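The following record pairs a protein chain with its ligand, guanosine-5'-diphosphate.
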Amino acid sequence: MTADAAVRSGPPRVAIVGRQNVGKSTLLNRLLGRREAIAHAAPGVTRDRLEREVSWRGRRFVAIDTGGYMGRPTGIDELVTKQADRAMEQADAVVLVVDAAVGVQEEDAMLAKRLRRATVPVVVVANKVDAPAQDPLVGDLFRLGLGEPLPVSALHGRGSGELLDRIVSLLPEPEDRAAAEEDTTEPVFSIVGRPNVGKSSLFNRLVGADRSVVYEEAGTTRDSVDAVVDWDGKPVRFVDTAGLRRPSKEEGVSYYGFLRTVQAIDRSHVAALLVAANEGVTTEDRRIAARVEEAGRGLVVIANKWDLVPSEDRTDRFKLIRERVSVFPAVPVLRASALTGMGVGKVPGVLLATQEAWSKRVSTSEVNRAMEQAQNATPPPRQTGRIRYAAQVGTGPPRFVLFSSGPIPTAYARFIEHRLREAFDLTGVPIRLTFRRRRR
Ligand code: GDP
């Protein structure tokens, strides 16, 4: 999300782009004109763009007709670039309208090229497909590289309900927008685990001797103190270091301790869960790991006290720990000893990489390319659906919506998740997939 978008509030914004005469305004009027869609002028309407608020099935968004950008007499390249760039910067989703009756023109291709970089969902509308007999026209628009085009007749209304359904399902939930606004802050980590597993020892190893560390009261709990450290010129935050320091021996596995852990997890992007390698993974450890997954935070497991594991047991112990802590696929597990310092050097890099995966944005074209490759390599089982269009709709953790022509069996959904993780390096983070059937 851009800085511009981060300070914005109000309903999500949907930009309608396309070259002249493809039917952008007719489409906008069609979206507004549906009996179920309530329209009125949104505040802040300016002369060079037309903004209208649309509500559909209880969701609201502002539709922006970007046609106004095209009005100035400049070179076509520049106009197209400007239109696409502004749409990408200012909208939460982009609708690219193409005239399917005339097929892909140079300007359409230029716009699509620009939009393939967009990290907000892009929907291609194949407009002027007035009757089912014309549906084959849609095929040509696949080559825009933005997933399956949606056949619509802005003039007659065909496909407009479908388009509205697709738009609202790709828009961020209101809570997501609040979360996205925090994107600009530094990476936030928590160090969690049972008492005595070595949390404060590890923290001291990581930042204790660092002169750049600044302690800040977090303001959530009265005695919650964060540490902000400089890692390679970049600030990172460790939450609730007071919680790490408090003498935890008497505390036991108390409710208070767990509550404090939960708060630390919720405030962080990535939780470093320490387990005592010499004791193995306990039920309490698993409970904490499960809570991290539920909260949608990144998870890095550190098998601490590795020095206490006899060398002949190490291979088996590592395998066992991995199996027991994997609350989702691809949870990184590091071996370390906060006592000797062994393995601690690897921790910052893995935490930072996990935070990056957690907040990663992938463009619609990349998502669709990955889905196409996955399905070509391993086609979905017969009698089930094929994924026609997919887009990332949120970060922290990554969220994707996938539209399919039929039901997607659980095993195949798992395969799809695996391919998304692989294609976009989504290691150490839970990912959320929503499958939707598209009606035809
Ligand atoms: P916390 O309650 O999780 O913060 O745990 P502490 O950091 O206070 O560590 C508890 C005890 O375990 C202390 O006596 C540490 O010296 C010891 N300890 C911590 N890390 C290691 C380690 O990697 N190896 C060994 N052998 N002992 C450790």
